[in-house]
Amino acid sequence: MGYGHQTMEPDDAERAAGSPGVVLKIIPHLVRFGYGDVVVKEAYTGRGTLDLYPHALAPLAELPVREIVSVTHTVSDMTLLAGEVVHDYLA
């Protein structure tokens, strides 16, 4: 996130910090995880960039980035909830 960021509204910050994430596990499954008990301490929005790096198991860097819709930066306390398998690559 670059210079010239703005402070986010508390409700928007909690929604951004509590959004679920997706990760490719070693097992190899695609796993969705969420966050609970989110307490946002600081939150900012503004312009930003995205860097994707090559990886043998997840070739995301080969995907074209057409548009960055929004950028947020949050400092918060939260609990990482149990994940669920979204896609089993071995099935």
Structure explained in plain terms:
The model has no long low-confidence stretch (mean pLDDT 84). By secondary structure, this protein is mainly beta. 9% of the residues lie in helices and 40% in strands. The strands form 2 sheets. The chain has a 3-stranded antiparallel sheet with strand order 1-4-5, covered by helices on one side. A 3-stranded antiparallel sheet has the order 2-3-6, with no helix packed on it. The chain is built from 1 helix and 6 strands; from the N terminus they run βαβββββ. A hairpin with a 4-residue loop joins strand 2 and strand 3. The radius of gyration is 16 Å and the shape is flat.
Q: What percentage of residues falls in helices of 4 or more residues?
A: under 10%
Spatial order of strands in the largest sheet? 1-4-5
Distance between the terminal alpha carbons, to the nearest Å? Answer: 39 Å
Give helix and strand order, one letter per element, not per position.
EHEEEEE
In total, the number of strands is 6
The largest β sheet comes out as: 3 strands, antiparallel
Mean pLDDT: 84
Rg (C-alpha, Å)? 16 Å
Strand percent estimate: 35-45%
User: Total number of helical segments?
Assistant: 1
Structural class: mainly beta
Low-confidence segments, given as residue ranges, are: none
Shape: flat
What characteristics describe this protein?
91 residues, mainly beta
